[in-house]
Structures are given as C-alpha cells and as structure tokens.
Amino acid sequence: MTTKQRIRRLAAWSIVVAFGVMGLKFVAWWVTGSVALYSDALESIVNVIAGFAAFWAISVSHKPADRDHQYGHHKAEYFSAVLEGVLIVVAALLIMGAVWRSWQDLSPMEQPWEGLAINGVAAAINCFWALLLIRVGRRDKSPALEADGHHVMTDVVTSVGVIIGLVAAVLTGWHFLDPLLALLVALNILWQGWKVITSSLDGLMDRAVPIDENMRIRDIISTNSAGALEVHDLKTRIAGRATFIEFHMVVDAAMSVGESHAICDRIEAALGDEIPSVRVVIHVEPDDEAKLPLGTAAVPFA
C-alpha cells in the first residue's frame, strides 16, 4: 500500500469512527441528561465535520501538479486544519451557551453510571484512534491527519476529565460540578482550537524546516557535493508533506555544464533518499560568485 493510499484510507475511517463515537456520546447524554456529557457530544459533531474536511484536503493535496498549480496542491491540508480549529472554537461557544442554561436549573443526573460507562467506551475508542492518526500523520508528513489526531486526543482528555468530575458529582451530590465541568471543557477546547489554527497558519506562511532538519540537509549537501567549491543561500520551506530546498552552488568557471549537472544530480538523489517528497532547486554559479575564500578541503557553506 502506498503512502497516499494509507493516508486516504485512514482519513476515510476517521469519518466512520467519528460517527460511531458521536452516537455513543449522544446516547450517554440522553441517558443522563448531563450538560457536561452534552458538551462532550457536541464536540464530537465537530469531529465528524473535521473528518470530512480532512478527507477532502488529503484527496486534493495528493493531486499531481497541473498548469494552474505548478508546485502541486500540498497546502490544501493546511486549509483543512484551519477549518478544524475554527470548528473547535464554534463548539466551545455552543458549550458555553449550554452551560449558562444549565446553571439556571441545577438538577441531578439520571442513570449516571450507565451514561458514564457508555462515555468511557467512546473515550477508549477515540484514544486508540487519535494515537494512530498522530503517529501516521507525523511519519507521512500529513498536517491534516496529524491535526485531526490532536483534535481527537483533545476530545479524549475532555472525556476523561468529564467522567472523573461527574463521578465526583454523583458521589458528593454537588450538582454544580456538571455545568462547571462543561465550562472547563469549553475553555480547554478553545485553547486547543487556537493552537491548531496558529500551527496551520504557520504552514501557510512557508515556514522553514526546524533547525535540526536544516543541519541534516546541510550535511547531506556537503557530503555529496564533491567537485563544487561552495554552497550558499540555502533556503527551505514546508508545504504539507513536501519539503522545498533551494540553494546556490559555486563551481569552477571552467567546469562544463555536464559536470556541474552531474553534481546537482548526485545532491538531489541524496536528498531524495533521506527526505520524503523533497523538491530541490540548485542555482549553479561560477567561482567569482563565491562568498568565502576558496581552496578549503571541504565544500563550505557561506
């Protein structure tokens, strides 16, 4: 199975899992009448919508480059992640409205243990699925899949907190804990939504690779640039699962086009072996463009 097929299959199954978990949580709310469980169920609606958005974005991002999108469609996944963050914020505002209404009429839950057990099953399913999405999303550089996983994990944390709090409410008879927990849920997912949005906007702004990845790229270039005199103006950016690398390579002015092209091919092949979905642009320059004194044993970076 290819990376593309694996990511699309996980994105499709996320929709199925989200529908199943949402159904369980609404049953838990219906059994208990708890506003905290209602808030948990509301967040699951966002999971379903986000699942559809992630599937769309992943499908678009894997389309090959065309005349109108000559660098590919990789950034489509960031739009999905931004939408997911916005939906999380909307869910938080809906929960706050439910909290306000519940605070006006505090009442004990009905059949609390049955409802909490159902919600616990939903949380366990979500936890397994979130860990899988985050792991595969990071490995295959899929922002939409990873964002979906983090959102689902937020749902897990929310559910666990709600269950613990409601158990305390049942045992103590402190009914105000129910709307109070729902308010804490809303504040938590507001924070998570903000983090998803800012992270995705960072990607849309052509963020460079992390410093450790930058150093690895420099090492690969230096190791495979025998015959060149200098490398400078290294620039990188990340767009979804693709990494774009651009730099200038100085060679002897007397070197033939064929010889300099062979060096470029060697560097591109080495980068491609180490970095998935890499795109490399090398600008070859004569030695009078060098920025450092020439003649060192290793190919220096300026």
Automatic annotation (TrEMBL):
GO molecular function, one term: zinc efflux antiporter activity
TM ranges: 12-31, 37-58, 78-103, 115-134, 155-174
GO CC, alphabetical: plasma membrane
Membrane topology type: Multi-pass membrane protein
Cellular compartments annotated: Cell membrane
Domain Cation efflux protein cytoplasmic, residue spans: 213-286
Cation efflux protein transmembrane domain: residues covered: 14-205
Keywords from the named record: Cell membrane, Membrane, Transmembrane, Transmembrane helix, Transport
GO annotation, biological process: intracellular zinc ion homeostasis
Pfam (any one): Cation_efflux
Family to which the UniProt record says this protein belongs: Belongs to the cation diffusion facilitator (CDF) transporter (TC 2.A.4) family.
Protein name: Protein p34
